[in-house]
Amino acid sequence: MIKAENLLLIDIETVPIYKSYAELGENMQKLWDRKSQKLEPENTNTEATFDKYAGIYAEFGKIICIGLGYFIKKDNEYTLKIKTLSGHDEKPLLEEFATVCNKFFKGSEKQFCGHNIREFDIPYICRRSFINQVHLPSILTDLQNKKPWENPMLDTLQFWKFGEYKNFTSVDLLSSVLHIPTPKDDIDGSEVANVYWQQNNLERIVKYCSKDIVTVGQILMRLNGMKLMNEQEITYID
After folding, report:
1. What is the DSSP letter of 20?
2. What does DSSP say about strands 153-155 and 234-237: parallel, antiparallel, or unpaired?
3. How much of the chain is helix, strand and coil, in % rounded to 5?
4. Which of 95, 117, 197, 236 has the highest Cβ tally under 10 A?
5. List of E strands, 7-152
6. Residue ranges per domain, the chain?
7. CA 107, 72, 236 angle in degrees (round to 5)?
8. Can you give the pTM of this predicted structure?
9. β-strand pairing of 61-74 with 153-155
10. Is 4-11+67-237 a CATH 3.30.420.10 domain?
């Protein structure tokens, strides 16, 4: 059985690094043009593809929000504490994340937990940390040399694949098929960039991110054969 108290739940929200393609330097525009041709070969409107895809790539995007959650076990019952780091300036956000991680990861059994964090969240954080010249948390400094069983990540997507390679299941689909009520009733991931750059509403994204942490926490409970948490067992920390 998974020891939920050893897990740090994580989810990040990312956006294009600039409001528009025009704000990129000349060299970066050329580099985006090349990537755009691979993403949508028939589409010559690279500004549109920048708006659509740039936030997915650490070289052309940035992190504006990192949702974190940890479990507390008492009398065989779990409660979930959620804290969300956010800001327009990415560097102090990454520095704060590293500080939190260095405090949390003091035991060999502790791991990150999230949905698709092996392919997206953790690599993105590492790349943006290097770009911003921020020291990685100690737990992430030597990932490429770790053996598979030493990898400090429990990925609910990988869990659900059961060894399959070709399939991708979104967190929304997984929570639905597992009959988990989702608190996400506002935006979805495809709208984050617009809400950030056009509506200037970071707080709305923060709420969306924290709800993702709740959903992942409930998925973990279900996959671990445990009862779902109720609202009173979930606390949001300022």
Report:
1. S
2. unpaired
3. 50, 20, 30
4. 117
5. 7-16, 61-74, 77-86, 111-114
6. 4-11+67-237, 18-59
7. 115
8. 0.94
9. unpaired
10. yes
Give the integer Cα–Cα distance in Å for 234 and 225.
Answer: 19
The β-bridge relationship of strands 61-74 and 7-16 is antiparallel
Classify residue 45 as left (phi > 0), alpha (psi -120 to 50) or beta.
beta
- Which amino acid would we find at residue 93? L
pLDDT level of residue 1 (50, 70, 90 thresholds): low
Per the listing, tokens 């956010």 go with: 86
**Rounded Cα gap, residues 158 and 168, in angstroms:** 9
In this prediction, residue 62 carries a pLDDT of: 98
Kindly report, residue by residue over 15-57, the tens digit of the pLDDT. 999 999 999 999 999 999 999 999 999 999 999 999 999 999 9
Cα dihedral 87, 90, 92, 95 in deg (nearest 10): 120
For position 2, what pLDDT does the model report? Answer: 81
Start-to-end C-alpha separation, the chain: 31
Instruction: Name the token pair of 48.
Output: 């549109």
Query: Do 126 and 140 contact (CB within 8 A), yes or no?
Result: yes
Q: Tell me if 135 sits within 8 A of 104, measured CB to CB.
A: no
CA distance 93 to 86: 6
Kindly report, residue by residue over 162-221, the tens digit of the pLDDT: 988 878 899 999 999 999 987 767 788 889 999 999 999 999 999 999 999 999 999 999
Report the distance separating Cα 38 and Cα 63, nearest Å.
Answer: 24
